[in-house]
Amino acid sequence: MPQLGESVTEGTILRWLKKPGDTIRLDEPLCEIETEKVTAELPSEFEGVMGEILVPEGETVAIGAPLCTVTVAGEGGPSGQSPSFAASPAGGWSGGPMAIPPDEAVPAPAGAPAAAVAQHPPETPGPGPQHSPEDRSRFYSPAVMRLAKEHGIDLEGMRGSGVGGRITRKDIEARIASGPPAIAGKPAATDDAMYEVVRFSATRRTIADNLSRSNIEAPQAWTMVEVDVSGLATLREREKERFARELGIELTMLPYFTAAVCEAIGEFPILNSRWEDGELRRYRALQIGVAVATDHGLVVPVIHNAGEMNVAGLARAIADLARRAHERRLRVEDVEGGTFTVNNTGAFGSIASKPLVNYPQVAIVSMERVVKRPVVVGDAIAIRSMVNVCLSFDHRVMDGLEAGGFLASLKRRLEGIA
Predict the structure, then answer these.
(1) pLDDT category of residue 101 using cuts at 50, 70 and 90
(2) All domains of the chain, ordered by start, with CATH?
(3) Which of 228, 320, 326, 395 is catalytic?
(4) Active site residue 395
(5) Of 88, 146, 345, 415, which has the highest C-beta tally within 10 A?
């Protein structure tokens, strides 16, 4: 299981793209993996034939755990066959392959299933205790242990469907679906239970963990300003056909809003910060995260060096990231390193909201729905396009002076667009 992100500790096999016996070319995808950050394909580091699948679809295992074996082409083993290697790069996509020679026994990484990672075990046992297949089946993935703990399932009393009787995530889910065993004086659950347990995907679980951490660790304050974006609305109407014709994308107000955010952060750079390793780090480059709601959860891909882009560049970047987020084709680098987040809650019709800071960042700003309504302009009443802009911020880092100053600067810039 590769390291798909700096803080990722486990991954889930969504789908195997190869089955045992299939021919494999170098860099050809072997399977689809979902982590808390991205969904990605695992390319083969070898050319040869697909061997044993060690982790079934739907199971979650720790980083570094062996996933499958590959018989390498063109290398003869001691019995006239090609040696087999475990396709499990320990340090991510790059780095040397984890080659396991046929005459050596290599222990599985911590938390990994202890099934053999080479198809040629040593003829002479090496030093140290020897384990039976039943002992090896007692290794559990983090997902298995978490589900078992949540539902009070005794793993020692189960035999799984995995290699060597290993218990998989599907085994636990099947046990949960069948209802708990009857306890003295208490009947087992029936099909007409009053509720069902909703399983979180890796993405949804990470969202829950991050928001809980943000709410606990960062004392957050919230403020809002009302902005007249009549000039911006007119400009967008005037330019949207040209954008569609020349760039092939739909022009929204978000690129203009993001450009104004970048300019305002230039006046108040403390907002472009992150809590890391026990210290507050204020970044020079603007790595702007854009919240995207998808069918599989909220993701925040990052526009790197957003401060160097014009509106057209931001529009292209936002459209590309949003499309790939919906298609689950974001890369690791697309979701890491954000220093400030922009959220377009107005897309859902919201007119006021309190966003939660995307920890370890220190601030997040939301653009609400643009609404035409009567407002006082001078001594007259006029119909204007109005929008609420909401800012949540970490009160440890800044006070109302900086937060209010940032919003005032953003308001001035948005109202100055014509």
Answers:
(1) very low
(2) 203-415 (3.30.559.10)
(3) 395
(4) yes
(5) 88
